[in-house]
């Protein structure tokens, strides 16, 4: 009986710790700035949606959302195709000088280095190519990061699939690439999905490169646009809270939708 | 006759293509990685040996930027703040995550809800996590102040006080990343073999003995991997600090990534900032590779 009580209390405590900050964000986003700073109410006494309306009418949140969706979609889609092919080559072929293993290790090394390390040269590169403040500059950058991740993750998924199936397809007249496309790739679909989900999360949430590479609503992504609301002298708490809700909503919804794949992807590498 | 040659030609073409296939499959991914990651990395290395001063030509200074780092009090301070932050946040996350994973190992009502809710902190955009915590800490609009006033107290100062701001940042990181620790460790616990635990139960071992003699030793590799992953990740923390405190008050929360960013984009010392980032990269790589070696030893023993 006492363990049961302890369980209930712990569960409630954990839920409260996670959900209270989120409650406060949502509650603040429904108040007016006057209510927030002068009355300090614990819940919105006069709920209003004005803050949300203002984001879209005055603060270009529509553009930020479009930019985020476009940039995330293309960089993840391209990286999945390139990454899956690269991972397959590394998982299945023996190249001279064990090159495939060296390439795999090299990509992993690139992944370990904190992205901030190459921020300046990437900025200079995009500056010289005239790709600052453009979708293309962000897509190129995110695709490159996502490729290193996709190769690393997909490689282990491909290794789990028995080679026999491909060989059988090739005996039946498929080319090697045909066997990859028609047999291996569909079998690796769950792995592909887990990889894609993880890449979408990381890309949609990325801030550092968006901060350096974009400057106007033409290319600013959600996190970048949200951050522009911050740091003025008169902090507009109400807009900031509404921006937080709008910024978090799509990705939280997405994550809860694909929960099972997500947890598998997150824990896969560590437990093996 | 004619069909025979055609078939052979076809097969030869196929064989030739198969020989080139791995290279063709690797080419597109490697091209973009070389262009957007490796070239900049090399460019950064080159820039780190130069000094760029406005109005004067670029000068080559060799390793002087690197040497200068170690007598730069602001750099040393940001390194110290980063190490403190990473050590404190990751150890709290490991302990809490492990405790929570042990707690959730036995199925009970409400556990699905708990697991679902715990996903939220780590998927929310880091910028938004920082907004969440600014709304909690703010001295005028914050949740802590509102709660304190509701209970008859005064305003609460978090972000204006160096120590409180630092602790506030650690709390943010713990809130955001304990769930990841929890999920990895829970998956680890669930993959442990059952037999030793049943044997221990038959022998009548107490739960503390089971933990100290069985669970903890068996979980050491997973725990080590989770800590290493989190440490590497925490070392590069930027977004949350940028939005929460911008490194302040003073230099209390100025992590190395923030200092590097300011050096490059605010103070325009490109060469010096490049040397700083190369140094961070090397530190993290050294950390990662020694951790991998350590893990191999744990695995072997």
Overview of this structure, please?
- The complex is a heterodimer of chains A (272) and B (301).
- Chain A has 272 residues and is mostly helical.
- Chain A has two domains: 1-48, no CATH class; 55-271, MetI-like fold, CATH 1.10.3720.10.
- Chain A is 78% helix and 0% strand.
- Chain A contains 14 helices and no strands.
- Chain A has helices at residues 2-29, 33-39, 50-57, 61-92, 99-112, 119-129, 135-160, 163-171, 176-187, 189-205, 208-213, 222-228, 237-257, 259-271.
- In chain A, α3 crosses α13 (237-257), α4 crosses α10 and α4 (61-92) runs antiparallel to α12 (222-228).
- The longest helix of chain A has 32 residues, at 61-92.
- Chain A is globular and about 75 Å long.
- Chain B has 301 residues and is mainly α.
- Chain B folds into two domains: 2-47, no CATH class; 68-300, Orthogonal Bundle (MetI-like fold).
- Helix content of chain B is 77%, strand content 1%.
- Chain B has twelve helices and two strands; from the N terminus they run αββααααααααααα.
- In chain B, strands 1-2 form a two-stranded antiparallel sheet.
- In chain B, α7 packs across α9 (207-235) and α9 packs antiparallel against α12.
- The longest helix of chain B is centred in the N-terminal third of the chain and has 46 residues, at 2-47.
- Chains A and B meet through α1, α4, α5, α6 and α7 of A and α1, α4, α5, α6 and α7 of B.
């Amino acid at each position: 009986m006492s363990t049961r009580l302890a369980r209930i209390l712990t569960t409630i405590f954990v839920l409260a710790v996670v959900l209270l900050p989120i409650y406060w964000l949502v509650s603040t986003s429904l108040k007016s700035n006057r209510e927030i700073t002068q009355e300090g109410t614990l819940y919105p006494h006069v709920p209003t949606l004005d803050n949300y309306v203002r984001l879209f009418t005055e603060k270009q949140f529509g553009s930020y959302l479009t930019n985020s969706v476009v940039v995330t979609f293309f960089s993840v889609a391209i990286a999945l195709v390139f990454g899956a092919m690269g991972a397959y080559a590394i998982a299945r072929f023996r190249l001279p000088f064990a090159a495939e293993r060296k390439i795999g290790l090299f990509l992993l090394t690139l992944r370990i280095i904190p992205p901030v390390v190459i921020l300046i040269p990437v900025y200079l590169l995009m500056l010289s190519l005239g790709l600052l403040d453009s979708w293309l500059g962000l897509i190129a950058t995110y695709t490159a990061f996502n490729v290193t991740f996709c190769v690393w993750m997909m490689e282990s998924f491909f290794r789990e699939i028995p080679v026999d199936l491909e060989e059988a397809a090739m005996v039946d007249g498929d080319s090697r690439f045909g066997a990859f496309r028609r047999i291996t790739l569909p079998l690796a679909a769950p792995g592909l999905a887990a990889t894609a989900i993880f890449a979408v999360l990381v890309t949609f949430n990325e801030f550092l490169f968006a901060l350096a590479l974009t400057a106007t609503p033409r290319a600013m992504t959600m996190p970048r646009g949200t951050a522009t609301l911050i740091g003025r002298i008169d902090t507009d708490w109400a807009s900031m809270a509404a921006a937080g809700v709008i910024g978090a909503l799509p990705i939280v919804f997405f994550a809860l939708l694909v929960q099972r794949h997500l947890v598998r992807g997150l824990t896969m590498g560590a437990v093996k | 006759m004619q069909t025979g040659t055609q078939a052979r030609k076809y097969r030869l073409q196929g064989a030739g293509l198969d020989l080139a296939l791995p290279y063709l499959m690797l080419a597109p991914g490697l091209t973009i990685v070389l262009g957007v990651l490796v070239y900049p990395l090399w460019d950064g290395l080159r820039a780190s040996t130069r000094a760029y001063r406005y109005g004067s030509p670029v000068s080559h200074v060799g390793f002087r930027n690197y040497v200068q780092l170690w007598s730069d009090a602001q750099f040393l301070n940001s390194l110290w703040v980063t190490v403190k932050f990473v050590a404190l946040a990751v150890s709290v996350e490991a302990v809490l995550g492990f405790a929570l994973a042990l707690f959730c190992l036995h199925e009970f009502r409400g556990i699905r809800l708990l697991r679902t809710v715990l996903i939220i902190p780590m998927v929310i955009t880091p910028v938004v996590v920082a907004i969440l915590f600014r709304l909690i800490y703010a001295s005028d609009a914050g949740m802590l102040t509102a709660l304190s006033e509701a209970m008859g107290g005064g305003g609460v100062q978090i972000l204006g006080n160096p120590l409180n701001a630092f602790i506030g940042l650690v709390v943010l990181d713990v809130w955001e990343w304990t769930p990841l620790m929890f999920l990895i460790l829970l998956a680890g616990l669930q993959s442990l073999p059952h037999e030793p635990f049943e044997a221990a139960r038959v022998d009548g071992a107490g739960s503390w003995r089971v933990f100290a003699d069985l669970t903890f030793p068996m979980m050491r590799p997973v725990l080590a991997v989770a800590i290493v992953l989190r440490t590497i990740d925490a070392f590069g923390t930027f977004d949350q600090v940028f939005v929460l405190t911008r490194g302040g008050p003073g230099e209390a929360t100025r992590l190395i990534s923030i200092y590097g960013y300011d050096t490059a984009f605010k103070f325009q010392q490109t060469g010096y900032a490049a040397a700083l980032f190369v140094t961070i990269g090397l530190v993290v790589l050294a950390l990662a590779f020694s951790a991998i070696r350590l893990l191999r030893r744990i695995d072997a023993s």
